[in-house]
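Thread: Modeling a multi-component assembly for a lab meeting

Hi all, long-time lurker, first post. My supervisor asked me to bring a structural picture of a complex we are working on to next week's group meeting, and I have zero experience with this. I have the sequence lines for every component (590 residues in total). Could someone generate the structure of the whole assembly? Inputs are pasted exactly as I received them:
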Amino acid sequence: MSAAGLAISPAAAARDRREALTAWLFSLPALALLSVMLLLPALAVFFVAFTDWQLGNNSIHFAGTANFESVLKDPVFWTSLRNTLVYAVVVVPASMALGLGLALLVNAGPSLRGFYGAVFFLPFTASLVAMALVWQILLHPTIGPVNALLAMAGLPTHNFLHDPNLALPTLMVIGIWQLSGYAMLLNLAGLRAIPPDLYEAARMDGARGAWSRFTLVTWPQLGPTTLFVFVVSSMTALQVFETVAVLTKGQPARRTEVMLYTIYNEGFVFLRTNYAAALMIIFLVVLCGVMLLNVLTLEKRVHY
Amino acid sequence: MARRPDQGRGSAILRHAVLALATLVFCIPFIWMLLTSFKSRPDIFNGGIDPWPRQWGIVENYSRILFDVPMPRYLLNGAIVCLGIMALQILVAAPVAYALAKLKFRAARWLLPLIVVALAIPAFLPTLPLYLAFRLTGLISSSSGAFGNYAALILPFSISAFGVFLLRQHFKSVPDELVHAARLDGMSDWSIVWRVMVPHARPAIVAFCIFSVVAHWNDLFWPLIVISDNTYATPPIGIIAFVNESVGGGDYGPLMAAATAVTLPIIAVYLLGQRFMADGMALMGK
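Re: Modeling a multi-component assembly
Sure thing. I ran the full set together rather than chain by chain. Output:
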């Protein structure tokens, strides 16, 4: 596109200037909205976290690290962080494994591929608030079919969402049900992108069984997909909110208190603005740490 | 993967058996939701594992959410907010994506990294300052009407860094010759964006629109923060309002009717655009 090697004529220079001007005009709305709706607010959180300001206050004072100290001294924060990490440590690998397994099965034969793909992705598209309420009925202690089934089998029934030992695992099951379809869809796309020649070459080299085809070709070739699914699934799982807000409200005994729900309550219900800002920053650091860990451990997988 | 000779009829049957079982497990919540919304109140309270209604309550349940609860209003709010967000996202993203993909300007060197940084910002981070700003400017208050409420729901999502990035990737694959030819025909850059670039990237745009609509139809966090007047409730907030009103009443039939009304439209949107999804997503990592 450029007049490389030639002396730039005045006409060409004017054209370049016009092109740059057009580019600027085209970028300006996006840049303005990006700044006002995303970048400046994100920076403002850092600012508020170091002040004593709460919504309604008329004055604002520098508070140093006081907000961070009170977050770190709050047992609710530690409970919340632990629950969030435990939730993600179960939900992410489980939904990724299930998603990969389903993708391999769907991809293994030609018939009904589109149908299965669509079905498994449904939970990811459906409103989680609505589906959480459906799960509530499925798991209902008196009218729910799950407990009816347990009773029929002679097993003890449970009040799944109110039992301190079962509430978080129950939310995990809903999370896995919802997230696996996403992992499956991306893995299907990844599987389709693998050149068939690679399987041919592996066969020539004597890899005859399905397992050796998988370990020699499929798994290494899916590396970038796995990394991407891992990052998105971790982000989604660590920011679990809907099921908690609708079903358990952090209870029983704070066993389902999770970070985003704590942030929501502090920032938007109790209006402890400065405290919520500090919570957000700490949670952001945790998210960055988890991502860094993910990328570092999985990078070897990608650059096999 | 093509079918291999060593893959017999047996393995095909096994594949369908496992997948059919998985389909059933994945779909039980949907089936239960739909059939419970057809059951009468006593039928629901009988419990049991029979999904099929013995005593139908379809008219009571659905007339309740259509006339007693403003569910149609919630669905309308959802449609307004989702279409507003989607239209703004495309309107804002397509020109800048074209500038980044095809035009020469020095700012592109830092604008693209800035987009990538924005892509990594988790959605909860800007909500606190935005909420404060909207409160302090009076955009959201007890007296704000339709404009303030819809604006508060739509504006924070008017820019999608993901959308800009996705469109830029796709616009880049449009041959430069096509752009030159369009310019020689006397087309302005603005018309090139909408009449050459956007049609070329249509699968990706459709995929992006579906993702956007699905995400914002189902979003709970931000609407929960800004909606104080349920007249402007989006579908998830509407359902929660319904639960709060009928708490203890055990109105599970109407509740499942409401859940069905919220879920069906978004599933329809997804299924209609589903064939574009694989194409759009497969090109994403390029």
